[in-house]
Fold these 4 entries.
Entry 1:
Amino acid sequence: LPLAPRLSEVEFNRMCLQLREAARCVRDESWREVAADERDSLRASLVPLGGAVVCIGPSNFPLAFNGISGGDFCAAIAARNPVIAKAHPGHPNTTARLFAHACAARDAAGLPSASIQCFFDCAPEDGEALIAHPGVAALAFTGSRAAGMRLKAACDAAGKPASLEMSSVNPVFVASSAANARAEAIADAWSASVLLGGGQFCTKPGVILVAGERAAERVASRARELLQAAAPAVLLTEGVRGHLVEAIGALRAAGFEPACGGRPASPGLRHEATLFAIPAARAREIRALAFREAFGPLGIVVAVEGDAQLV
């Protein structure tokens, strides 16, 4: 990830802001949301969960979403719950340094040593066993759908709440009037979003469905120009690149060749910006592939016959 401005300014400042907001909530106890019914002598207030919150962060936000400094961590600590954080293998040293700062703050505040904990790796079944442990009250997770749903199933089985932010392909639907009037401008905006951060934001609009085959051709043509001109993206982990290669390979196996890109690049964990153009009928046939999220600079343009089919 680029140091400036992404990490050193934008994300670092966001992390500090949410930590300060959590500290404010601890001091004024606004998180309790106290409500009183004086007439009937009733009073309600939020209370701590009575156990630890397991916080698991993603690869793509090592500061603002980190298990030991992210929003989930802040919310859990502000509400006076212990935290057991899992470090992401993509940035273990960053997490270790953040954990050291958190431990120093914990010790300075006189909190028990177990109130902030962190571990770095485990087998999936060990993570599920941790969630089932009676000392754990809840899960906070940001990451892939596959891992999130597996952990949610463990929470459901144990009767514990889970807060999850998971993947989505974030499809964009372009009606015929917009497509005919400004196909190239739409392609510019869509391509920029697909390429943002190397295509490694959970908000990446991986699929764009365009009403009108001629308009869809215009969008695909302009997007191909932009993606071909883009330098190969640096991907965050070997796993991200492997999943991207697998997704592109599955589309090829279904009978499609990329309009541009499609290959890993070097040095390091790089990959070419890749575009596929698919007609709507085929997209329906391979729905699981066409609407599968894959981190990285991959976009799919789906040509839809008209507005009725778009709906």
Entry 2:
Amino acid sequence: MARYKMINGVRSECTAEEVAELDAMKADWDSKAFDRAIAGLRFKRNQLLVETDYMANSDVTMSDDWKTYRQALRDLPSGLDTVAKVEAKEFPEKPE
């Protein structure tokens, strides 16, 4: 199937070299899908941990519910090895 590009408003067919370059770029992008997915999960997880860091201060007594919640957040990425698993992973509920 032919691929096309626009140059100055003119549609022209891509050369074999351009098609090969596009295919290589797509393969590279696809190969890093898991890295992007796990990075997004870790970013959100880290934000949730930061929101509760004050509870880990020495002058605050953290309840068992909060300890369990924070540990569940830290354990969240373990065992995830596919994009589907990352996308299906649910975040723990924040205690009341």
Entry 3:
Amino acid sequence: MSKKPTYSKYLQLDKILDAQNSLSNLAGKSIHDEMLFIIIHQIYELWFKQIIYEIDSIINYFSNESIKEMNINTIVSRLNRINDIQKIAVSQIDILKSMTPMDFLEFRDLLNPASGFQSLQFRIIEVSLGLKGSNRLKFSKQSYKDFLQKKDVELVEKYENNRSIFDLVEEWLERTPFLESEEFNFWESYKDAIRQMLDQDIKIINDNNNLNHESKKEQIENYKKIYQNYNSLFDKVEYNKLIKNGSKRLSQKASLAALFIMLYRDEPILQSPFKLLTKLIDIDQSLNAWRYSHALLAQRMIGTKIGSGGSSGAKYLTKTLEKHSIFDEYANLSTYLIPKSNLPKLPDILKNKLGYYFINKGNNNE
């Protein structure tokens, strides 16, 4: 008998295709749409497994003391893969919409108390990306772990005790060079550029004859607040206050490094780090897109009724949108972006460090 793999054996299709045991069928009254419901959620869990596989590999790369440029490109590629999977997960909700609320009601009661709220893999994804327990919205004043099986709690706590992608990227950013050196002090140069830009805007407001005194006063007051917003980024005491009250989580040093990467993203060495930060934002927003689409689906299917796991359905899912964001501080750095024309000019010696170059020792033309 040949030991070479066949398509069916390699994919273990006998296990996969025999894993759709509908409760309605077991109860002796088969409900057609329950098969779709099972398969869609099984597909979700398979995609979650792949996402965790990619996240684990990314964490492994970031756990090294130094990260090579080629590894950053690999990390970006895997983050992009995660985001592509998330897009598919969101689009699958459209298939569930082919099932009407009346169709769902036919087998909904059979699901109690099972719920997507109990998905271990989805919780591992959130934890591995960087969602902290203190930032997590509680359900019925209970921890999400109270709804997991004991063996699942042990596994998710293992992930909680490890450093997340958020933690590791923060540490990586804090090691970013170039911010302060003999050639260039980014902080001071950037603050000067900000002052010039805002002062110019205030001058435009004062010189605008189409604005009355009250309108000018209102807009100038607004610019004073913008000044304060920028100043908090540079003032260590003020920044630490924001961290202490929970307004910020990302360290000041990491925030500044991320901002530097965003501002000078066209420099060759910074292009991959910029893509990495952008992809983290994409993944975070895709997670929220999934939560939002799921909330709309829950509202469509059960209205204001309680979910099968006892949650408040769409209302609970909607609340998680803001509370469970992980990388929103990177997205919020857009607040501090300035036009390219206002950027501090980098000294040539620094531009060389930020570029790709090689030395041809065997040049016969010298």
Entry 4:
Amino acid sequence: MKKFAFAAVAAAAMVAGQAQAQSSVTVFGVADIGYVHTSANGTSGNVSRDQLASDGNTSSRLGFRGTEDLGGGMKAGFWLEGALAIDSPGSLTLQRRSTVELSGSFGEIRLGRDYVPTFTNLTVAYHPFGTNGVGNAGQLFYPVSANGTSSSTHVRSNNGINYFTPNVAGFQANLMYAYGEKLSNAGATQNDDTYAGGRISYANGPLNLAVATGKTKYATGNYTQSNFAANYQLGAAKLMYLWGENKVGVTKTTSNMVGVQYKVSDTGEIRAAYTALKASGFVSTAGVDDASQATVGYVHNLSKRTALYTNYSVVDNKGTGKQFVVGGGDKATVAGGNSTGYEFGVRHSF
């Protein structure tokens, strides 16, 4: 009897251990902070600003994620992630990714707030600096507000159904639909913030390709974003190309970027990018015209989780342009003005 009782307890403990191993919860995050200096052409000389700012290399964040094995190849999970301002911390709101998901042989379905398909092509995988710091790709690849339309979906969208197919021979697709959730009697604005988009990618060996497009409905004029990204690993260098187009009503900006991430050692990487933007359809008083951006930087990894970085960037507005600016700084107040910026910082992941 004692032997039977001992065996039963051991079996129960083994089952409990297996059940515990089948589910997990992880706390994760990034703390990124640095010194930033920016300067822009003003009507009475240059205007500069010194800051201690977050997110020069990677967006600071705090998150919680978990998975549960449902058996038969099915898994359930959640992802709750909020942004942090390391230089001036306040309340944490889960305004980054906030999803519940199911995955299996069919792929993965996420419900909630998540990246739109087009944003994935603007990350550091396809742009040397991603959307952070003075080299921020968003300066020339995000939409410009026009005719009363300001996009809320060029990075993430609320109320989304996001589907990822399985990876088949290097090919994968991502489709997303997000509800605007307006009342049916809201008139012209009843479809505002309704989003639909998709992305197809290919990754095989040193070559990565991806094309994406998405449209958000607004009564003041629909916003459409499309882009194509490619990178190729050539020895120590990852060569990158990114094309992007944003349309709001009759206005349009088109950008082309060439860049590189070059490993100079096991711990050091040089990054560089040049982007040229063409603008059309804007009235002359809007301050939106052609522009360019050049950025160079260096990342030094002290460990797998900690890195030092420095970047320098110049944004040059053409013609009547005043719109585009080095990240975190002030806009030029003279037509055709430029802005510059440099930063030194540290990033720690946990």
